[in-house]
Amino acid sequence: MTNHQKQKKDLRIVLFLLPFFALIFCSNDSLEGEEPIQSVTLPWNQFKIHFLSNKCKDKKRLLVLVHGSPGSSSDFITYLNNKELQDQFCIFVPDRLGYGDSTNEKSFPNIFQQGNVLAKVFETYISKQSFSFEKAIIVGHSYGGPIAIVLSMAKVPTFPKNIQTILLSSPSDPNLEKLHWYNHLANIQIFQWFLPKSWIFSNEEMFTLKFDLEQLTTTLGNSSLNILSIHGENDQLVLVENVQYFTKSKLNIKHRFQILKGENHFIPWTSFAEIKSILIAEGSK
């Protein structure tokens, strides 16, 4: 087996073990809170969106955590259960379209559709519950990063004007997006018979991501978003050079970035304590 083949095999194993990362890497740094976690499913047009949430009444800060590709709301369960985060935030952790308990009969490989459906569902839910927030932090991991930007730009009346977007290991630069041989292989129907549905949907998202990122750059235009990019130095799935894109593209957004030395693509779990501290610090501003 070549080194390249071994890396791909190791990657498949890591993706399969993602749900266990949250338990293994986060448990030592996570004091579990006592708030009950509720499961909510809401319709929007022909879609339904499922998300998890803690106790939100009387809280003034909203935290939305958007998973990557593939993934589900369970990816962020340790964040949702953490006492320090519960004390400060109302937390929404959705299953994106195509995954988990949201509409999942087919894939929805478009970051704008994904983000805008989340915006409509959260707008309806916040209004129905009569929540009122002073600040929102919208976090996206990996493919969830561009979706977090779309959600941050959506004009949601029930969202506060003060919105902070945090990108974890997120693609930003369309010029860095390239399809690989295994993407084309996984796009062949006979091979899809052997793949989990979520992997097929994830692969379809990769085929449209470059174009979506180009469109996102245009859509951002003169937007005054406040974005913090956090990236692992040794990320082999989404290159660390992505953190430079918003600066060199000279957009009007306020952009900061932080590179975590020695870390890889899976920083939501391997760097849980550090990211939790960043969330708490940003929420206090």
TrEMBL record:
Keywords: Hydrolase. It comes from the Bacteria. Residues 62-177 form the AB hydrolase-1 domain. One of its GO terms (molecular function) is hydrolase activity. InterPro entries: AB_hydrolase_1, AB_hydrolase_fold. It holds the Pfam family Abhydrolase_1. PANTHER family: PUMMELIG, ISOFORM A, RE40534P-RELATED. This is Alpha/beta fold hydrolase.
